[in-house]
Known about the structure:
The structure holds two protein chains of two kinds. Chain A has helices at 3-9, 12-31, 53-58, 70-83, and strands spanning 42-52, 65-67, 89-104, 107-120, 126-140, 143-153, 157-159. Helix content of chain A is 28%, strand content 44%. By secondary structure, chain A is an alpha+beta fold. Chain B is of the alpha+beta class. Chain B contains eight helices and 19 strands. Chain B has helices at 23-34, 163-178, 198-205, 208-211, 216-220, 330-339, 350-366, 391-404, and strands spanning 14-16, 40-44, 53-59, 62-68, 74-78, 93-95, 99-100, 107-108, 114-116, 144-148, 151-155, 184-194, 230-234, 241-245, 285-290, 294-299, 302-310, 316-325, 371-373. In chain B, the strands form five sheets. In chain B, strands 12-18-17-16-15-14-13 form a seven-stranded antiparallel sheet, sandwiched between helices. Chain B has a four-stranded antiparallel sheet with strand order 5-4-3-6, with no helix packed on it. In chain B, strand 16 and strand 17 form a beta hairpin. Classes of the chains: A alpha+beta, B alpha+beta. The A-B interface holds A 50, 52, 54-55, 58, 60-66, 68-72, 74-75, 78-79, 82-87, 156-163 and B 92-93, 186-195, 214, 216-217, 220, 263, 268-270, 272-273, 317, 322, 333, 337-338, 340-341, 344-346, 348, 351-352, 354-356, 358-359.
Amino acid sequence: MNAAERYLTLSAGELRLELDELYAGYSACLDEERFEEWPEFFTEPCLYKIVPRENFERGLPLATWLCESKGYLLDRVTAIRKTAVYAPRYMRRMVSGIRVIGWTDAVLEVRANYLALETLQDELTRVFNTGQYRDKLVVDGGKLKFREKICIFDSLLVPNSLIYPL
Amino acid sequence: MGARRVWPKEGITRIPYWIYSDPEIYAREQERVFCGPSWSYVALDAELPRAGDFKRTFIGEKPVVVVRDKDGSVNVVENRCAHRGVQFCQRHLGNASEFMCPYHQWTYDLKGNLIGVPFRRGVKKQGGMPADFDPKNHGLRKLEVARRHGVIFASFARHMQPLEDYFGPAMLALYDRVFDGRELTLLGYSRQLVPANWKLMFENIKDPYHASLLHVFLVSFGLFRADQPSKVEMDSTGRHGALISWRGEQKRTDDNADMKSLIDNFELSDAALLDPVREFSEYTVVMTTLWPNLIIQQQSNTLAMRQLITRGPDQFELAWTFFGYADDDEAMTRRRLRQANLMGPAGFVSIDDSEVMKFSQRGVGAYPDSAGVMEMGGRGWKDEPHMVTESVIRAFYDYYRQVMEL
């Protein structure tokens, strides 16, 4: 039995534990600013988007942040590390309500709520962004990875700048 | 305000910092700049394709509703019930056959005429409005409206000059370059709350000096650089301006040695992110600022309206409406959406600006009695065939001072 088949045979509880682990690891990677490792959570090709809920609900295609490959993800990391000018900050991501929608042709569809808290110097911690992850995962190299991760955010009015991934 | 605030004697080469934080200045701006004789951007026709489609937006901080009438014309009315002042429309976009205030259900047609007042004649012969109450005198306040090639502007002032005269020939030519009469298509919105005075946004887009220095991303990819062929243009009043450039070679030369931020041989991991095709005549980038609330962005193939909505002296909302043309093919639409990564609240380029505007506000807000120096490229203002100049900012403040009587 290969890794992909193993995932298909997992019980709901076992799959749940796997997903908890994956989402905790994803958040920790970003919270701890290990951005160089972030693309490794994705397959090649992949789709990563941060989309205002109003665009999503109206069927408007514009994303606030669009990556269509691991290369795109890396370019964002380069911007964070080398080109972008921004004030120092911490961000912490809370993921809850991870919900399995189901398998379709070896693609696992998962939804979850997320909350990103931002802490800037001289300012109190604030809710920076909240919304829903709509994810599609596949087994890649023996592990579940994101083929698609769409962050649909309720917080339409972005507090100044969105610099780190969600 | 009176004599408390006096502009520095050096004139437009000095920008006093109290203009970014003084509540009295802000109140005067609302009255003279946003409610004065100016055409404010409010919407694209593409946002309101059908009769009854409406958009809720703001001019300065005043809420207005833009609505498509049954005959295809566009009305702009104050989003304020004529009865008790309730902001009756709460949705960004929608469709309505009439507007009803939720408080006492006063109802207006799409032109803003009052068509219904519950219990106007009283109940059981008691109460009601006075017999001489005439609904014709109690409609929503209507603004003047001007449209050109798919874009809608409105004004609180009466007897406004035609939009074309308001732009002037140079700005009109740049405007018509993007809005050439082709039908536009809406790609989507981004909104951000920038903790800075609204004028800092205009200064930023009127300032080609910073673009070659702050924006490592732009500079390294040759999207906007001081050594590229470029120019700045203004209208005859100085209130509108444009930064224009052509794409150049990416390499280090004597001319760009001062650009410490330039990263040589910088390559994208995924080149598809920036795959610009030549689309418009002559220029690669034209950033146009139109008094008092609009920036028209044409950076390669990414097109957007950036609308400034003031939220007090120390913050503003920047409402981005990205668009393309109805005749774009799929590849062009995809290109526009990819290049949109440069702009907006998460833009490879515009992050630098929103962050620096906040740093600016933190500095100027704390030192209202100091002043900035604006002498790059001279002390007056005129069109220049280069971008090493603050001419466009000086022009803006020349006009601003007249309007504000400062």
